[in-house]
Amino acid sequence: MEKNPVVITEINEMKKISRKLKKEGKSIGFVPTMGYLHEGHKSLIRCSIKENDITVISIFVNPKQFSPNEDLDKYPRDFERDLEICRKEKVDYVFYPTFEEMYPENFQTYVIVEELTKNLCGAYRKGHFKGVTTVVMKLFNIVNPDNAYFGKKDYQQYKVIQRMVKDLNMDVNVVGCPLIREKDGLALSSRNKYLSEEERKSALSLSKSLFYAKELFKNGERNVENLKKEMSEMILNYPEVKEIQYIEIVNPETLKPKETAEEGDIIALAVYVGNTRLIDNIQL
Ligand code: PAF
Question: Which of 82, 134, 154, 165 to mutate to test the pocket of ligand 1 (most atoms within 8 A of CB)?
Answer without folding.
Answer: 154
